[in-house]
Design brief:
Length: 103
């Protein structure tokens, strides 16, 4: 299997995985336990070696799931911090996903 992914393939995979996990209980359990295997099953592409993926379930008790980016040194200038922090990227927060759909 190929291991190079385009941005379009990543975005399509995310949509396809989310749809399948919403309707297939066995797949949902698999993607929570072994995301790389679940991704390979749906996309027919392996996740590149060394790439670790963590999948979490949305909790219906909350309206949003917010993933914090990694900590950065307090020694960064404001310009350097802006480059690291990124911004909103089409439904994503750079460095994580935010679920904006109210329950």
């Amino acid at each position: 299997m190929a291991t190079n992914w385009t941005q379009e393939e990543v975005e399509k995979a995310f949509v396809d995985l989310k749809k399948k996990a919403m309707t297939d209980k066995n797949f949902r359990e698999l993607i929570l336990k072994n995301p790389n295997l679940a991704i390979a099953q749906v996309t027919k592409k392996e996740v590149p070696a060394g790439v670790k993926i963590k999948v979490i379930e949305s909790d219906p008790a909350y309206h949003m799931t917010f993933v914090l980016p990694q900590m950065v040194s307090a020694d960064l200038s404001d310009d350097e911090l802006d480059k690291v922090a990124g911004g909103i990227c089409g439904g994503y927060i750079c460095g994580g996903y935010i679920d904006i759909h109210a329950r």
